[in-house]
Amino acid sequence: MSKLLFKEIRLSGSGGQGLILGGIILAKAAVIDGNRVTQTQSYGPESRGGYSRADVIISSEEINFPEAIRQDILLSLTQEACDKYVLDLKNGGILIVDTTFVKHIAVQAPNTYELAFTDIAQQELGTQLVTNILSISFLVRISGIVNEKSFEKAIRESVKPAFLDLNLKAMKLGFSLASKEMKLRGNNEEIEVEGK
């Protein structure tokens, strides 16, 4: 019998960082994996610069409430997002922050990953536009929340053809950064987050 799955993921940052699309891609990957999924989003009045949040719940069983309450995984690409949502992270949850913009963390989670995703995207790929895919790919490999092949398929189905190659490069770079981080920590297994 397969293990029960119920995970809440929040992707947070500011408008224009592509987190809504990132949430749709992550949700689509979970559906390809055969799980039940809800994906909700919220953003401020400004489409760029205001806050942006995408919540994804992935479950092997029926989902009774569509919005994430206590996250197993939190990705924060801005200081404001980190400050706003870090207290909603479960004990033992995974916190991933973009140190390009997040300079301090109010509560240090045990499974915290701090990388300058925006800077890395600019330096390695020549644009900040794929920071969303880069950081979410990192999240996928660290957590094992969805199958990586499913994630790639979801990207291929969701991204405009003109930008597909760039997004796939961002995905591979995100996976590579996660593998290096796991190796540094002496952990080649995905992190198991405590249950609800």
Structure description:
The relative contact order is 0.17. The protein has six helices and six strands, in the order βαβββαββαααα. The chain is an alpha/beta fold and 196 residues long. It has a six-stranded mixed β-sheet, with helices on both faces. The chain has a single domain (6-184), classed as 3-Layer(aba) Sandwich (Pyruvate-ferredoxin Oxidoreductase, domain 3). α2 (79-85) links the parallel β4 and β5 (89-98). It has helices at 19-32, 79-85, 117-125, 131-143, 148-158, 161-184, and strands spanning 6-14, 36-43, 51-59, 71-76, 89-98, 111-115. Helices cover 40% and strands 24% of the residues.
The rough form would be described as globular
Separation, N- and C-terminal Cα atoms = 20 Å
Please give the largest β-sheet.
6 strands, mixed
Low-confidence stretches: none
CATH domain topology: Pyruvate-ferredoxin Oxidoreductase, domain 3
Strand content: 15-25%
Structural class: alpha/beta
Question: How would you summarize the topology of this molecule?
Answer:
Elements: E1 6-14, H1 19-32, E2 36-43, E3 51-59, E4 71-76, H2 79-85, E5 89-98, E6 111-115, H3 117-125, H4 131-143, H5 148-158, H6 161-184
Parallel strand pairs: 1-4, 4-5, 5-6
Antiparallel strand pairs: 1-3, 2-3
Core attributes:
196 residues; alpha/beta; Pyruvate-ferredoxin Oxidoreductase, domain 3; 6-stranded mixed beta sheet; 6 helices; 24% strand
